[in-house]
Write a structure and sequence with these properties.
9-stranded mixed sheet, single chain, Arc Repressor Mutant, subunit A, binds iron/sulfur cluster, 16 helices, 3-stranded antiparallel sheet, 2 domains, 21% strand, 42% helix, binds S-adenosylmethionine, TIM Barrel, 390 residues, alpha/beta
Length: 390
């Protein structure tokens, strides 16, 4: 695995996340906070609510320098370019936004949405993350997507023309997918990829239609060994083609890592705005979590009534911070800074547990100061973290 080339000394960062909670249709595997509306969404109302909530967050964080902005969803490519422009202006009104920082928008590859790409670029978006999901029509239909391969390729082509940076998502470990078929699809993806790919194994989330269908044995998924082979194939093919993994599911040309997502994994700070958004930032010297109301209209009502839609959250204890730092940082190829862990938790990692995990080939030191999970460790990362955090 590569190490990340965005230097560590630039610090973990301060990101702004904005959640657009609407989709044209709900995909049967998805448990993100996304909602389908059969009436047009009142975008001006939501833009005003975003502006209000951003100002409330600014009052809590104080003046800061933003390192990245991410418009995620849902399907932010259903936003009008004017809505995106209003939100980005509001971010710049509240905090310092240096020229050229990463501004990402998640987009679906349907042709209607691709038509708006130029408007997003003019509004300040400089990176697009496209939800391609598969490069064969049969699997796109299985995944319930509204686009086909032809539309995906044309959206990729258009995005490459318009945006300096492009990433796309694929979901693998689909029913019946052989390592050979996946390897071939991945190579095709890499031929079209600009600088970054997110490659997720299909996960069956509770409460989704796929959960019910899977329980009723309407389809089967690769077993653990087969999924591990697919994961290993993913690492090999991407590394061989210049897009090594810098995180469990994320691959980039050196230097093209997502600054925004690195902020999450390096345990930096971020403000989360919009329905269901989470934030984590330092307030009065303590790391504070914010969680917003998930239902879009209820969230907007709350913002209009009292300036924000935050309905949950907590102040983390040092031990909770240390656990989260471990959980996020071990996802990265660069691993974690052991001194920072010690400073957060007030103690070092248990050397006896470390040596067992090292003997099992699940973790490895990076020089004297850092620890990373190996490829084998990444596959069972939750267990590795639970063991270390005990
Ligand atoms: C918020 S969605 C992306 C934005 C956009 N709405 C789309 O679907 O194209 C983030 C990504 O998570 C991945 N994803 C969502 N649910 C998943 C699941 N159950 N298993 C694997 N990947 C999933 C998909 O690749 C998706 O593109
Ligand atoms: S995968 Fe994307 S398009 Fe599909 S429901 Fe989830 S957020 Fe919406």
């Amino acid at each position: 695995m590569s190490t990340v080339t965005i230097p560590l000394d630039r610090g973990p960062g301060f990101g702004v996340y904005i959640h657009w909670p609407f989709c044209a249709a709900k995909c049967p595997y998805c448990d993100f906070n996304s909602h389908v509306r059969h009436q047009p969404v009142d975008q001006e109302r939501f833009a005003r609510a975003f502006e209000t909530e951003l100002a409330t967050m600014r009052a809590r964080t104080g003046p800061r320098e933003v390192t990245s902005v991410f418009l995620g969803g849902g399907t932010p490519s259903l936003m009008k370019p004017e809505t995106v422009g209003a939100v980005l202006e509001a971010v710049a009104k509240n905090w310092t936004v240096p020229a050229g920082i990463e501004v990402t928008l998640e987009a679906n590859p349907s042709s209607v949405e691709a038509e708006r790409f130029r408007g997003y670029r003019a509004a300040g978006v400089n990176r697009v993350s496209l939800g391609v999901q598969a490069l064969n029509d049969k699997d796109l239909r299985f995944l319930g997507r509204l686009h086909n391969v032809e539309e995906a390729l044309s959206a990729i082509g258009l995005a490459r023309e318009i945006f300096p940076r492009l990433s796309f998502d694929l979901i693998y470990a689909r029913p019946g997918q052989t390592p050979e078929a996946w390897g071939a699809e991945l190579k095709q993806a890499i031929d079209h990829a600009a600088d970054h790919l997110s490659l997720y194994q299909l996960t069956i989330e509770e409460g989704t239609p796929f959960h019910a269908l899977y329980a009723a044995r309407k389809f089967t998924l690769p077993d653990n060994d087969h999924a591990a082979d697919l994961y290993a194939m993913t690492q090999e093919v991407t590394a061989a083609h210049g897009l090594p993994a810098y995180e469990i599911s994320n691959h980039a040309q050196p230097g093209a890592e997502s600054r925004h997502n690195l902020t999450y994994w390096r345990y930096g700070e971020y403000v989360g705005v919009g329905p269901g958004a989470h934030g984590r930032f330092v307030e009065n010297g303590r790391r504070t979590v914010t969680i917003a109301e998930r239902m879009p209209e209820t969230w907007a009502n709350l913002v209009e009534a009292r300036g924000h839609g935050v309905t949950g959250g907590e102040i983390l204890t040092r031990a909770e911070e240390a656990d989260e730092f471990l959980l996020m940082g071990l996802r990265l190829a660069e691993g974690i800074d052991l001194q920072r862990y010690e400073a957060l938790s007030g103690r070092g990692l248990s050397s006896s547990r470390l040596s067992v995990l090292q003997e099992e080939g699940l973790v490895a030191p990076v020089g004297n100061a850092r620890l990373r999970a190996t490829t084998a460790g990444m596959i069972v990362l939750d267990a590795v973290v639970a063991d270390l955090a005990r």
